[in-house]
Every structure is written in structure tokens, then in C-alpha cells.
Specification:
With 178 residues, the protein is α+β, with helices and mostly antiparallel strands. The protein has a single domain, classed as 3-Layer(aba) Sandwich (Glutaredoxin). 39% of the residues lie in helices and 25% in strands. The longest helix has 20 residues. It is globular.
Length: 178
Amino acid sequence: MDRRRFLASTVALGGGAVAGCLDGAIDGIGGRDGSETAGSTALRDLELESLAVDASPGGSVRVVPPDRPVVLDFFATWCAPCKPLLDELELVAEEVGGDVAFRSITSETDRDAVTSFWRQHGGPWPVLLDSDVEATRAIGVDGLPTTVVVDRTGAVAWRHAGLAAAGKIREGLDAATG
């Protein structure tokens, strides 16, 4: 196989892998956007286990804190676009400071894999284990990555399926904070 064919097939396979990870939500750096209130009541009182790794504290952490909006990042260690999304989320977190909480949530059960991934790619917020997929179901996540903004009342104010740029996430936060 010549070099051009090899590169073309590699790009095609990589694009297919990303498309599968996003559940068909590829639109440049985009994906699907929307907002709704379904499942937010269940989220308000939900606590998940946090891994004790880097800035993630360990122990039980509320998915939705009672005092401020929160950005929820649903990810998996095997999801290629989930890695650059963490960089975008970190940019937003630096911009908004402590006024907004951040949580990354995975339904994976391999703690070692998640810990290793978080050490390499994670942000300065809790990484939560959703092994019973309670938060995933409450939000209605159907593809990864999915980013959700929940406002102070516990209502889902914005969601995005796929890789989102920092500016897009900030727009979602602005919608939640008015």
C-alpha cells in the first residue's frame, strides 16, 4: 500500500471512531445543542463517588451543588474527543473561577483506568464515578462527550453532545446565569 492510501485509510478510520464516540454528532467542533428540564429533580440530590486523584477530592460529592451553577462533563477514557474537551473546559473554569462548579462523570468501572486518564488529561475539579449510570440516565446522555450546564435551581439550562469549544460552553453558562 502506498503512503497516500495508508494516510487516507487512517484518516477515514479515525473519523469513524470519532463519529461512533459522538453518536453521529459531528459538526466541525460542534455537535448537538439544546436545553430542557427533564431529569433535573433527580440530579439535585444525587451524590456520586469521587476518585481521590489530583484535584479530585475523593469521597462522596454532590453532582449538583446547591449554591451555584455546575458544568457536567460526561466522558469515557476511550473517547477520543473527550480529551480535547477537557482542555476547553479548563479554559472556561479558569475564566469563571469559583462562581461555577465543574464535574466530570464517567460510567466506567475500571478505577485504575479512570485514575490514569485523569492524571494525564483531567481538570482541577472532581471526577465522579457513575457506575450505576444514575446521573447519565437522569440527564439522558446518549453519546460522548456530552456537556451539560445546570443552573442554580437544578434545571438543565444547556446541553451539547460532541466536542464543544470554550466559547460555546461559555454561551451555555451565560444562558444558565442570565
